[in-house]
Amino acid sequence: MPNRFWVGGSGTWDNVNTANWSATSGGAGGASAPTAVDDVFFDANSGTAATVTIQATAGGRAATVDKSDITLLLAGSPTLAGIFTFTQGTLDLAGNNLTVLRFLTQNSNTRTIAFGAGSIIVTGNAATIVGFIGTGLTLTGSKNIVSNYAGATGTRTFSMSGTGTTESNVPNIAVTAGTDTVASLARVRTLDFTGFKGTYNSATAKVLFGGLIFDPGMTITGSASNHVFSATTGPFLIRSAGLTLDFPVQFSGIGGIWEFDDALTQGSTRAFVYGTAPTAAGTLRLKAGVTSTVGLFETRGTGSRFLQSTTPGVQATLSQASGTVNANSLIIQDIAAVGGATWNAYIDQNNVDAGNNTGWNFGLSPTALAYETSYEIRSFTQPRRF
Question: By the 8 A CB rule, do 57 and 76 touch?
Fold first, then answer.
């Protein structure tokens, strides 16, 4: 398993060019083009401000990119059999796909991945198959990551803390096959399991800057780990696919829009929180014509928050088995509140009845009524002065 080092600056990485490959770092060019058994390296001796144009025929096993002023520009969609380690530099997919075993970028160097309309496709399993860790990472374009492992072995983990907390810098993850276990850590935009038939381990809290789409053939492990939906745009799709979402959820974006594509069934002890302190605004649309069941419905913070049906004029039904819901700062429309719970949406708690609602207690809260009654009594009994 020989190594191949890029030398000589700009050039083309394909299956025939030998001018830019050396058997040692900074050595003479002329080594054979890398094949599926060779590890390739781009390092300090690869040439100043080099652009490496990568063709679909490019070969190699693992690849390490460790040079701040190097750009890897895809002119096709190559496949590497090993791990792609991206330490610094620029990776420009230019609308093509890069297929690798695993993709790791785990440091604080300045590095950029420009997806265009392309994707990073990872084929590995039983490990951290995508590691976006550390600061200094910038993502542009589609930001699509696809995991297509079709087997049943181990746990595939996506560790995504390096994308930061900015919505525009967070990738989408699609898990398209497999019967193994998948875990996602930290942050993701939309997490899509369409085609996956294995198990989603929900045990790690995460922030989703987009949607969450499950497949009806998969399973979900229950946990107390919060799944926070945080977005400023939308609409983003949430599809439970007939599964029980046995974990707490929170919608806390400023201006985010989320739409449920089907009936939600949440674990009976799990919190369903709309909003966060001190302010939160957004739109949450429940599927029209079906019953969505939550564990413990709660609102937090202030701001203009809309609770609606996906079809104007057609009610969506919201059910909670027991307890008392005291909503705050909700604009409610086309929602039927049912179940054993008491649904309070008092107007003195900044709630608005926007029409076609049933099962809600609008009007004044008991505290406000008591104050109003006390004021009326005091006003009536106050002696007149002439």
Answer: yes
